[in-house]
Amino acid sequence: MRASQLGQPEGKILKLKGLLAFFLVAVVLAVPSLASAFTPFKVKDIRVDGIQRTEAGTVFAYVPVKVGDTFTEEMATDIIRELYSTGFFSDVRISTANDIVVVTVQERPVIASISFTGMREFESKQIIEAFQQVGFGEGRIFDQAMLEQAEFELQQQYLSKAKYGVEITATTTPLPRNRVGVNFDVFEGSVAKIKEIRIIGNEAFSEGDLLDLMQLTTSGYLTWYTDTDKYSREKLEADMESIRSFYLDRGYLEFSMETPQVTISPDRQDIYITISISEGKPYTVSDVQLAGNLLSLDQEIEALVTIKAGETFSGAKSNETSVAIRSYLGDLGYAFANVNPNPVLDREKQTVALTFFVDPSRRVYVRKVEITGNERTRDTVARREIRQLEAAWYDGGAIKLSKERLERLGYFQEVDVTTEPVPGSVDQVDVNVKVTERQTGAINLGIGYGQTDGVILSAGISEKNVFGSGTELDFSVNTSQDARTFVLSHTDPYWTLDGVSRTTSGYYRTVTPSLNNPGNYEVISAGGGFNFGVPISEFDRVSLGLNFEHNKISLYEDSPLAYEQYVDAYGDATNTPILSAGWSKDTRDSVLNPTRGSFTRLSATVGTVSLKYYMLSAQHQHFIPIGRDYTLAFNALFDYGDVYNSDNPFPVIKDVFAGGIGTVRGYQGNSLGPKDPRTGTYLGGSRRVVGNVQFFFPLPGSGRDKTLRLFVFGDAGQVYGTGAGNSSDTVDFGDLRYSTGFGMSWLSPMGPLQLVYAKALNAKEGDETQVFQFQVGSAF
């Protein structure tokens, strides 16, 4: 009994050992070894099996064994490791037979195609280029790890668009010749919006004031256009820097900020941002000193220091001083000058002693200026804008001006200027100007609308850089309900080596009355001539011109009396050489959307022979930035015309007009001043006075978008005198018309757009007023 009890467990143990041995043998047989054990031998030959695309020579290059070597198990292991490391193979096996080494490989498939399903947010080309940056693309070896990296990269692209609910599924399809096609099935989901932004720890400034500094906002009625309610890590980092600069500019030198906490709701639709700050206390500047090598220019450098003792510390003024000193030294040839502000805090008194350490380094020459990237534009066209001379002292101001002048040409999409030390020289640098050319030719088709001119159609063809020569050729056609104009012009900005420009132009224009301007007549004008521009500084230019004009007037029974008097005095056809001269100065930072600078223009036009008249004009615009987002703009315009050596009235076809957008808003376009006593036609006048003041501010919710702005304005103006002989040509400021209102300006794809709600403040009997006005194709 006991023996049987002992024997039974022993039998079970033997059975378990047998089963275990069976499974071990099965595993060994089912999973072939990578390198079978063998006795070292002298290699007679090496053979590679299984390759389809890979060249045999590529495999042999990674096999550290040659015919005649003694082959060992360690060598087999090395071969396997080396071939796996190439990434070309998914399996490598080593076998031996008759002193022959056989390397059997299984190649990884090649990616034949990459496709996307359900992707609407991005172009396929854009994502494929991003994939290539992580090593995943058509023609590359397929690797699961790279596929996962590509999925991650695509997900990151969607996260940058605030689409946190995106789902991406990648599938691979085997293709003939050991290839695969990869498809990414994308469920984009909806955009997650910023639900709340909280700032905690602020005491000196309200949360609202700090939120106004940020580009990111919560959802509002305009965020569909601005996208400022879409979370972006880059924008948030920029907003953090804006808040930090805000505090430093107000003396909070110990201001600190924790990493913002960004959370998302469970449904991935709402984002919450919490910003924790520590303000500290504001510091007052107790002393400002200059130290280091001042090059005996103490007074000149001290004049550049904008931050003074007794003021609240300002990080902006400190940086402004450092930049001004570096720029000043750069203008003197010290290209590598360093200026480092060093604040020393007195926490008990809440004061800071500020020292600017000046190190001018060495003065250097410019050996040469190298221009690259101008494949179409001639080298002389770009080089004539360079103000830094070769073999001369380095001049930082001249280099900056050179970059600005190249950008203003309009030939280049990007201008990058760098300086590099000359190898082996301690006092020479090379200036490298790299440009990226843009298309300069264009066919323009446009449509606009104005309440004065009705539908405005325009078409034209232009080339600003003809054959890379820097000359400009334009042909344009403009039509409205009152006028049709055809213009052909050619401009050579460097007619002479000194920068004298020459414009040759011809035009044909017809003017007929509109429904808003009754009276039946037609004026046909054709002319052409030359205009020359002479630069007298980087911002000033003098112009001289000579043009010839032929005018033909057709009258009818119901024509205006003023035009009949014109024909009586001058005839229905005139030939007039016109002389012109002018001066202009333009320091604006933009022509279409200026925020700082000014524009001044003085001009004189004198008609001779048939029409002996002159017109003097003066205009000044000034733009004053107020803070970062606001601009105060002023405009003043004055015209004065008369005849000379003649008893005839001022020619009515040379009258100027006012009323509407561009002069005095709130009044119908071109409606101010005298009217014809017979037909009531708006005649304009020989004198004009216009004044405007306008305050621009951003549209709430639009962030820093300068293409869309609101403004409030006040206008004043009037037109005096006419060739009809029925009104005084005396300028009476008591007769000015005034208006005020508000509006919106938008740099639309069709051109500048203004929408205005205006109120005429002192309209008189007979004045034509308009409360709502708009115009496409004009700007303030």
Automatic annotation (TrEMBL):
InterPro entries for the chain: Bac_surfAg_D15, BamA/TamA_POTRA, D15-like, OM_assembly_BamA, POTRA
Keyword list, A-Z: Cell outer membrane, Membrane, Repeat, Signal, Transmembrane, Transmembrane beta strand
Domain POTRA: start-end pairs: 41-108, 192-280, 283-361, 364-438
Main location: membrane
PROSITE patterns: POTRA (PS51779)
Coiled coil: none
Subcellular location field: Cell outer membrane; Membrane
Keyword Transmembrane helix among record annotations: no
Similarity remark: Belongs to the BamA family.
Described purpose of this protein according to its UniProt entry: Part of the outer membrane protein assembly complex, which is involved in assembly and insertion of beta-barrel proteins into the outer membrane.
Subunit relationships: Part of the Bam complex.
Protein name (Swiss-Prot/TrEMBL): Outer membrane protein assembly factor BamA
